[in-house]
Amino acid sequence: MSTKEQVLALLKSSGNNYLSGQEIADKIYVSRAAVWKAIKTLEKEGYVIDAITNRGYRIKTESQSISASSITRYLNMDIVGNMDVLYLANVDSTNEWAKRYSSDNYGRVSVMIADSQTKGKGRKGRDFYSPAGTGIYMSLLLYPESMPQQSAIYTCMMADCVCEAIKEITGIDTQIKWVNDIYYQDKKIAGILTEGITSMEDGKLQYLIIGVGINIYKPYDGFPEDINKSAGFLLDTIAKEDVRSRICAAVINRFMSCYSDPMDRSFIEGYRAKSMLIGKYVKMLTPGHDKKMSKGYALVLGVDDDCHLCIRYEDGTEDTLSCGEVSVVKY
What we know:
Blueprint: H1 3-14, H2 21-28, H3 32-44, E1 48-52, E2 56-61, H4 68-72, H5 77-80, E3 84-91, H6 94-104, E4 110-117, E5 135-142, H7 151-170, E6 175-177, E7 181-184, E8 187-198, E9 205-215, H8 243-259, H9 267-273, E10 281-284, H10 290-293, E11 297-303, E12 309-313, E13 318-321, E14 326-328
Parallel strand pairs: 3-4
Antiparallel strand pairs: 1-2, 4-5, 5-9, 6-7, 7-8, 8-9, 10-11, 10-14, 11-12, 12-13
C-alpha cells in the first residue's frame, strides 16, 4: 500500500476519533511530512478531513472517494448478477486492463474502475484526459452473442444509459452527439469507446469492451490546452453525497438491465430524444464515404433502429452512416 492508502486506512479505522500526525507517522513508519503530503493528496481526491491543532486528523466525509465497495453498495445485484467489480487507483487504460483480465478470466462479465488513467483511450487513437479525483473511468467487459456490426447498438445503449444515470443522480439533462459523445452546455463531458475481438471461426464477437469516461468536476489543474475550449464538466462544486460512485453504479445498473434483454430496443427512443444532431447540418468526417463527402454537407434526419445516422445530402440523396464522425456546422 502507498503512504496515502495507509493513511486513509488508519483514518477510516479511527472513525470519529482524531489521530495526530505523529501517531499516523509512527504506525506506518514514515515522516510527519509524508503524512501531511498524503493528507493533502486525499483532500484533492475529494475527502473532507478535519485538521485540528493538538488533536490531529479525522475524515469528515468520504463524499468523493471511489472504490469497488463504494460502488457495489449502490448496485442492484438482481440486475448485475455475479459481476466482478474491480478497482485500481491508477491504470494505463481501463479498456486495456479489461483485455488483460479477459485473457485469464474469459467469460467473466466484469467492470473495471479507476480513479485515474495514464493512457486513457479515446476514438481514433486520441487520449482521454483522466486525472485523479474528478472523473469516472470505467470499462465493462462483456461476452455478447452477436456480430461485430452490432457493436454500434451497444455504444448507443451505453450513451443513453450514461445520460439517464446523470439525470437520475444530479438532475442534469445532457445531450448525445452521435455516436459516442455526451455534451452539457455545448461542451463534451463524456466519451465512450467500444472495442471487440472477433472469432475467426464464426465471425462473432469473442468479447466486447465498452469504456466510459465522464468529467464530473473540473480537474484541479484545469484541462490541457488542446481540449480546454471543447471539454466540460458536470458540477461546479463538490457534492455532499458520493456522486461519482452513485453515477457509476447507476450507469452499470441501467446498462446491464438493457443488455440482459437483447429484444428490448426502448433505449433507442431515449437516444433519439437526446440527440443534438437531428435537424442540424453536419460536415462528414466518415471514412468510406469519400464520394458522399465531395457533396459537402448533410442534414441529419434522425437515428434509425440500428443506431445509424440518417442524413440527406445537398443534392437530395439520402444515406445512413453506421460509423465514423461528423461535426456540427452553421449553415
